[in-house]
Amino acid sequence: MGVDQPLGSNFITTSLDKVVNWSRSRSLWPMTFGLACCAIEMMAAGAARHDLDRFGILFRASPRQADLIIIAGTVTKKMLPVIQTIYEQMPEPKYVIAMGACACSGGIFDTYSTVQGIDEALPVDVYIPGCPPRPEGLLYGLLKLQEKIMAERNTFGAAIGLGEVVSEA
């Protein structure tokens, strides 16, 4: 039992997971959400020199259209409920990138009003260290997020309510 004749050069066989993951990883829409100096570097990554558009990454202004939130800068305890509300408004599947030392670990601000890492409140997928990190660091973090998305399984099944997404990372 098998294929008697080859399919030819115009056919590609793959799994539905690979097609869905490929299309989702190549069309990330991050939320424009900058909190401090790291936001300047995030804007520089979207500008002409680094041009995130060539990767299919388009910044969105609404959480209902975004599937990625980049926490760029210092998170205060006063701002944390706003960030959590925006995260909850994002559709599934959703991803989080912590950009900069302040978002990753509180940075130099070891005070009562600063959250010591956004991972206390949100599930972070990629950490980008630095104070502030260069635009190339954000680009590298986005490429790592694409690799993580490509390693997921049952993404289409989870989208239609059949089981959960299985991450191989």
UniProtKB/TrEMBL annotation:
<dbReference type="GO" id="GO:0050136">
    <property type="term" value="F:NADH dehydrogenase (quinone) (non-electrogenic) activity"/>
</dbReference>
<dbReference type="InterPro" id="IPR006138">
    <property type="entry name" value="NADH_UQ_OxRdtase_20Kd_su"/>
</dbReference>
<keyword id="KW-0472">Membrane</keyword>
<keyword id="KW-0997">Cell inner membrane</keyword>
<feature type="binding site">
    <location>
        <position position="131"/>
    </location>
    <ligand>
        <name>[4Fe-4S] cluster</name>
    </ligand>
</feature>
<feature type="binding site">
    <location>
        <position position="102"/>
    </location>
    <ligand>
        <name>[4Fe-4S] cluster</name>
    </ligand>
</feature>
<feature type="binding site">
    <location>
        <position position="37"/>
    </location>
    <ligand>
        <name>[4Fe-4S] cluster</name>
    </ligand>
</feature>
<dbReference type="GO" id="GO:0045271">
    <property type="term" value="C:respiratory chain complex I"/>
</dbReference>
<dbReference type="GO" id="GO:0005886">
    <property type="term" value="C:plasma membrane"/>
</dbReference>
<feature type="binding site">
    <location>
        <position position="38"/>
    </location>
    <ligand>
        <name>[4Fe-4S] cluster</name>
    </ligand>
</feature>
<keyword id="KW-1278">Translocase</keyword>
<dbReference type="GO" id="GO:0009060">
    <property type="term" value="P:aerobic respiration"/>
</dbReference>
<keyword id="KW-0520">NAD</keyword>
<keyword id="KW-0479">Metal-binding</keyword>
<dbReference type="GO" id="GO:0005506">
    <property type="term" value="F:iron ion binding"/>
</dbReference>
<comment type="subunit">
    <text>NDH-1 is composed of 14 different subunits. Subunits NuoB, C, D, E, F, and G constitute the peripheral sector of the complex.</text>
</comment>
<dbReference type="InterPro" id="IPR006137">
    <property type="entry name" value="NADH_UbQ_OxRdtase-like_20kDa"/>
</dbReference>
<dbReference type="GO" id="GO:0051539">
    <property type="term" value="F:4 iron, 4 sulfur cluster binding"/>
</dbReference>
<comment type="similarity">
    <text>In the N-terminal section; belongs to the complex I 20 kDa subunit family.</text>
</comment>
<keyword id="KW-1003">Cell membrane</keyword>
<keyword id="KW-0408">Iron</keyword>
<comment type="similarity">
    <text>Belongs to the complex I 20 kDa subunit family.</text>
</comment>
<keyword id="KW-0813">Transport</keyword>
<keyword id="KW-0411">Iron-sulfur</keyword>
<dbReference type="GO" id="GO:0008137">
    <property type="term" value="F:NADH dehydrogenase (ubiquinone) activity"/>
</dbReference>
<feature type="domain" description="NADH:ubiquinone oxidoreductase-like 20kDa subunit">
    <location>
        <begin position="37"/>
        <end position="145"/>
    </location>
</feature>
<protein>
    <recommendedName>
        <fullName>NADH-quinone oxidoreductase subunit B</fullName>
        <ecNumber>7.1.1.-</ecNumber>
    </recommendedName>
</protein>
<dbReference type="GO" id="GO:0015990">
    <property type="term" value="P:electron transport coupled proton transport"/>
</dbReference>
<comment type="subunit">
    <text>NDH-1 is composed of about 13 different subunits. Subunits NuoBCD, E, F, and G constitute the peripheral sector of the complex.</text>
</comment>
<keyword id="KW-0874">Quinone</keyword>
<keyword id="KW-0004">4Fe-4S</keyword>
<dbReference type="Pfam" id="PF01058">
    <property type="entry name" value="Oxidored_q6"/>
</dbReference>
<comment type="function">
    <text>NDH-1 shuttles electrons from NADH, via FMN and iron-sulfur (Fe-S) centers, to quinones in the respiratory chain. The immediate electron acceptor for the enzyme in this species is believed to be ubiquinone. Couples the redox reaction to proton translocation (for every two electrons transferred, four hydrogen ions are translocated across the cytoplasmic membrane), and thus conserves the redox energy in a proton gradient.</text>
</comment>
<dbReference type="GO" id="GO:0048038">
    <property type="term" value="F:quinone binding"/>
</dbReference>
<keyword id="KW-0830">Ubiquinone</keyword>
